[in-house]
C-alpha cells in the first residue's frame, strides 16, 4: 500500500520571475498530478493570466491559491530546507543532488519541517544570491547537445520524484515518522529567516572588527553562507553563534 498524505502540504514549489504565464499553468497542472498543492510565485511577469489558466487544464484551484511574493526571502518564510534547481553544476561550489535524492530528502524533511523546491527564470535560472539561500542544488542531467530544459518540465521531473518517494512509504513507515517519540528526536534546524538574521549579524560583526570590507572582499560572505548552508545549523547552534557575535561586538565597543 502506498501513502501520499498531509505531509505533502509541507512541500512548496517556488517559481522565480517566471516570464511565460503558460509555464506557471503547466507547473500547476503537474503539481496537481503529483499530489502537491502549494505554489509560490516570486514577481511573475504576468499573473493572473488566461494562458496560465488554459495550461493549468483543471488545476485552476492551485492558481487561485498561489501565493505571489515580492521577494525570494518572503517565499521561503517558514522553510527549514531549501533545494534549488540549476544547470550550472561546474561553475558553483555547492552540494549537488539528483532529482531522486531531492524527492527522498523532501519527503523525509516534510515529516517535521517546511521544504521549498525552487525553480529559476526560464533563460537565466537562479542568481548567485538566490543560490546562496539554498541548502543543496538539484541538477537534472540532459543531452549535452540540447541541454535547455523547460521550467515546467523541470517541475514535473522533481515533483514526480517527490510523489514516488511518498508512495514508497508503507503504513508502518508513516506511523513511525508521525509518532511523538520520533518527533521528539527530530533535529530542529534553523528556519530560512533565522539563518538570514544570523548572516546579517555575522556580516555586521565582521565589519565591526575590521575583518570584512565588503567592497574589497565581495566573495567572503557568499563563501561563509556556503559553509553554514552545507552544515545546516540547528536553531540551538544558531543561538550559540549569535551569542558569540553579541559578545564580540560588546568587546569591540
Structure, briefly:
This protein has twelve helices and seven strands. With 253 residues, the chain is of the alpha/beta class.
User: What is the CATH C-level name of the largest domain?
Assistant: Alpha Beta
Class from secondary-structure proportions: alpha/beta
Number of strands: 7
The name of the CATH topology of the largest domain is Alpha/beta knot
Topology as a string of helices (H) and strands (E): EHEHHEHEEHEHEHHHHHH
Major sheet characteristics: 7 strands, parallel
Question: How much of the sequence is in beta strands?
Answer: 5-15%
Tally the helices: 12
Give the N-to-C terminal Cα separation: 63 Å
Provide the CATH architecture of the largest domain: 3-Layer(aba) Sandwich
Q: Rough shape?
A: globular
Q: Which strand order spans the largest sheet, edge to edge or round the barrel? A: 3-2-1-6-4-7-5
What's the pLDDT, averaged over the residues?
89
CATH homologous superfamily caption of the largest domain: SPOUT methyltransferase, trefoil knot domain
The radius of gyration computed from the alpha-carbon positions, rounded to a whole number of angstroms, is: 19 Å
